[in-house]
Amino acid sequence: MGIPHFLVIPYPVQGHVNPLMQFSEALTKHGCKVTFVNTEFNHKRANSSVGGLDNLKEEGMRFVTLPDGLDPEDDRSDHHKLFVSIKTNMPAFLPKLVQDINALDVHNNITCIVATMHMGWALQAAHKLGIKAAFLWTASAASLAAFYFIPRLIEDGIIDSQGEQTKQQEIQLSPNMPVMDAEDLPWGGFAKKFFPHIVKEMKNLEFGEWWLCNSTSDLEPGAVSVSPKFLPIGPLMESDSNKSSFWEEDTTCLTWLDQQPPESVVYVSFGSIAILEPNQFKEVALGLDLLKRPFLWVVRPSSDNDKVNNAYPDEFHGSKGKIVNWAPQKKILNHPAIACFISHCGWNSTLEGVCSGTPFLCLPFFSDQFVNRLYICDVWKVGLKLDKDENGLILKEEIRKKVEQVLENGDIKARSLKLQELLVDNSVVDGESSKNLEKFINWAK
Ligand code: UDX
């Protein structure tokens, strides 16, 4: 029996590329071969940022590219456009790519395709090619459970066929999962327009024998057991994410952190997609100025849109803080100077924060981020909500108040450290996630 050869293909956003890269590294550490499919655009981008994909060639991982169908100058932060283009253009190229790779590597043909959300067509293609297929879910198991239960939610009249909640109510997806507001179901915000696609996508995902979850039973005991397909293999924390970073990391913030007192700095980052409305941006800036402590804020200037939104108010001093375009987030969260994390609650950031034992302040924007906030604040109790005012804004005073509250609360810090410990145990040799990873690799052989 040869060694398994995986062809892995992420939807080309940072929150999918990073965990799939980490998963690939875990596979190569177990002696597997991985061919990582990037879009041409992202391959160029990652190669020009720190780390560079080409450094990884010798580690059992090879990189290939497929076109995303857009022109070089098209705006890839328009996710609807990107997503439609990929779905329309990429599937035609995949069988030929597999054929070419197999022709070059006759003794080690591709045995399994692993894809992330929105790339379910690749799992269907695997089925047609007679190759095994698995789905890697990059968000929480709870949000996957919500997608999995869509037919039942419609049948029970909790949502309509467009994903809209029929009335305000609390629901429980499965008996061992927390009670949640129906409005926090993970197709909220701009994700709403993807709802019809998600319904179709769930059918494609059926072609995946396993739904690998970047999570653990400790974090989400009820959610990981809603279907026997769910296989928790998280937290994926293999290496620094900078190997697959789309933007150049500003490492000067690490030297700056070295000069700050222990547990003093408030780290602020809203991931790779979310864009703050101008008024909210202003409140965050002024809120940070109100703090009696240093802050490190990631302000990502990626498109013309952002530049308009990211207008610092005239009253903003920022004298106690450092602002960077893109940071080495995992290193930052593990730095002794960090006190707490103001986060959009993207799942990767959630895991990275939890794995570093850092308390959270939650400012979710869309999709799964509301469910993640529920787990952070109400289930694990390792953070606090930032509440909106009657106009839907989180005001500077709220930010100041909650930062103080979260840092004064010794119980929150104690629970954060306890949870961190539990997660580390999962990834060690006999931990649940390591065992599941081995089970998966054996299945692929
Ligand atoms: C997206 C969705 O928004 C999120 O809801 C979903 O759970 C995953 O996909 P994103 O918004 O980018 O992801 O957030 P997140 O999942 O937190 O991923 C961001 C990644 O970028 C993290 O791994 C984080 O470490 C990294 N990052 C972020 C940096 O390396 N540097 C930064 O300055 C900011």
Automatic annotation (TrEMBL):
Domain Glycosyltransferase N-terminal, chain residue ranges per copy: 7-67
Transmembrane intervals: none
Entry superkingdom: Eukaryota
One term of GO molecular function: quercetin 3-O-glucosyltransferase activity
UniProt entry tagged with the keyword DNA-binding: no
One Pfam family recorded for the sequence: Glyco_transf_N
Keywords carried by this UniProt record: Transferase
Family under the similarity heading: Belongs to the UDP-glycosyltransferase family.
PANTHER family with a match to the protein in the record: EF-HAND DOMAIN-CONTAINING PROTEIN, GLUCOSYL/GLUCURONOSYL TRANSFERASES
Name of the protein: Glycosyltransferase N-terminal domain-containing protein
Gene: Vigan.04G043000
